[in-house]
Amino acid sequence: MILLAIVLGLGGPYYHDASACLVIDGKVVAFAEEERFSRRKHHKDSRSCAVAAAYCLSEAGIPLDQIDAIAIAFNPAWPTPSDTCTDAELITELLDPALFGHYRPRQVTVVEHHLAHAASAFHPSGFDEAAVLVVDGSGDGVSATLAHGTTNGLKVLRQVPFSQSLGWFYETVAEHLGLGDWTSSGKLMGLAGYGNPDRYTLDFLTPLAGGYHLDLSR
User: Global pTM?
Assistant: First the structure.
């Protein structure tokens, strides 16, 4: 008898873009974003992955209590290191027991936020080896990560703290321009191609060897 590893990954820890992905023996079997069921863009202000998770399990015909591991992409105890989370209230928030026969897992596995980002980019890429760059607002105290991906996994080479977040800077510019809150940063990305890079001097942003520095003293 061959035993397969069944893993349920839950995304959207910071109250946006909640999702669920079911992986069996290293292969993605089902994936869904919660916004497709709630009909609320980014599933904003919620981190419940319950309906998306129920959909994934239904597609595979597997009940929640048969899952070998459930992984979340953040550390609720940050800055204290932690590999697992047993917070019953948080687990109930993520996976409403009413959708799973009133079953609630006793614990979930914690995956560092940027490592989860890097894994979701590298492992499905088809590359045996690659440099992996993650840049976002922040997660678990980090706003950018450079990693080396190989068949043996991911090795973090360098990380940038949230106090130097280019993602938050980008969101602030989008809001200043009146494009909306953080959910509308994509509008600025779409307009960027029409901009003139020589028009402004960003003297507070300095490129450095292997990185950059944001001068926030002002």
Answer: 0.88
